[in-house]
Design goal:
Elements lengths: L2 H14 L3 E4 L11 E5 L3 E7 L8 H12 L3 E5 L2 H15 L1
Parallel strand pairs: 3-4
Antiparallel strand pairs: 1-2, 2-3
Helix pairs in contact: 1-3
């Protein structure tokens, strides 16, 4: 499975629960996460997507740490099963 497939699955599943998974691009800030997920209730998460088994680069790790240090939830996802578990968690959090 390729990273693109994991990313498309995330976008689809987030949409199904009423959220948006914006492609996150920040000129001059290489290594930022791929998606900014906005869910009902004002919840925001940053997601770095990878093909199964692939790891983040040192630059991506640095950008993830910067966002995390600012208080944002940042996750690295490399498979559809993790997305399914997150969707279930996010749905339960909304209740």
């Amino acid at each position: 499975m390729r990273e693109k497939e994991v990313e498309q699955y995330l976008v689809k599943k987030v949409k199904e629960i009423g959220g948006k998974a914006f492609k996150f691009v920040s000129p001059g800030n290489a290594g930022v996460p791929d998606r900014m997920v906005c869910l009902p209730g004002g919840r925001i998460f940053f997601v770095e997507l990878k093909a199964p088994g692939c790891k983040t680069t040192a630059l991506q790790d640095l950008q993830i740490k910067k966002l995390y240090d600012l208080g944002f939830n940042v996750m690295v996802i490399d498979n559809k099963e993790t997305i399914d578990r997150l969707i279930e968690f996010w749905n339960n959090e909304a209740v």
